[in-house]
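Dear Dr. K.,

Following up on our conversation at the group meeting, I've run the structure prediction for [FeFe] hydrogenase H-cluster radical SAM maturase HydE from Suipraeoptans intestinalis. I'm pasting the input sequence below exactly as I used it, so you can double-check it against your construct before we proceed with anything downstream. Let me know if the numbering doesn't match what you have in your notebook.
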Amino acid sequence: HLKALVQKLTDTHQLEREEWVTLLQGQSPEFSEYLFALARKVRQKHYGTDVYVRGLIEFTNYCRNDCYYCGIRKSNPTASRYRLSPEEILSCCRIGYRLGFRTFVLQGGEDGYYTDARLVPLVERIKTSYPDCAITLSVGERDRNSYQRLFDAGADRYLLRHETFQHTHYSKLHPASLSAGHRQDCLWTLKEIGYQVGTGFMVGSPFQTDQHLAEDLLFITRLNPQMVGIGPFIPHHATPFAKKSAGTLEKTLFLLALLRLLLPKVLLPATTALGTIHPKGRELGILAGANVVMPNLSPTSVRKDYALYDNKICTGDEAAECRVCLERRVNSIGYQITTARGDSLNLDSYS
Ligand code: 5AD
Ligand code: FES
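The predicted structure tokens came back this morning:
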């Protein structure tokens, strides 16, 4: 029965809500191995054994929001706040470029300092300095005009996880100032403007059920994003969710494989959170269908301050060390890092 559902998913790239729930509840070590093998085959068909790299620049940990799960939420007084200057950000790009990165991901909290008047010229400067590179922004919810100006300035891609589709669940993870609907509207807007869009969610976030995950998968089916970022929820000690349990490696891998079968050409990172809950988490992620890794290019002086969750890996390592470390890890399982820009092959067709 489970295998029939997997067959349907592989053939039609969609499932009904109840079918997703059935699949999710069928998770077992044997069934997972079966799915991972299929996911590898699909990934192999489109991307071979290439793993794309993106240089992550965590440029500000100021945030106006107060998400209950996140260590840089505004009500965490113990967070030590920093903001990189444009010069520092460009210097990260310079180091990254020399290390072979052709995509820079500018990620930050929703920092009121980074208005369009400041962010637009920054994007333009990076684009002018590195015309052969893709710029990915991950700076949260902004209005349509802002997204448009940033796109016009040269941003190619935008990461904004929908976090959870279901409204009631969303409201258990966020204060009332944030809503699932607005989050999703932002994603549709980004798509309309022409960004390559990445969405995603945490696995095992507090109060999450398989029904919620089924809704997430249905939303992703409709949105048909170019990228999907998922990783386990990991508690941060200075948040309201400090005492909640973390998401599991097994369930995250299971979902990675399902996503690969759902969207064969999607760019799917083996995330830092996955590498944090298990020493071989990212390698196992690749073996379950992931094909992107995002080593950190932020200066080591601020690394530990971009703490969304506890025990985050790589906080003491220079960019070059992470690059080498990941290369070694990827090679150890028979894959290789590619420095191509890595635009998504997921445009409109599945063939
Ligand atoms: N554990 C795991 N992931 C987290 N994120 C935020 N806080 C946590 C946490 N405690 C994720 C969110 C966000 C992304 C940048 O990091 O999904 O979109
Ligand atoms: Fe950063 Fe391994 S990837 S040290």
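Two things stood out to me. The CA atoms of residues 3 and 34 lie 9 Å apart. Residues 69-70, 161, 163, 202, 231, 233-234, 236, 273, 308-309 surround 5'-deoxyadenosine (ligand 1) (CB under 6 Å).

Best regards,
J.T.
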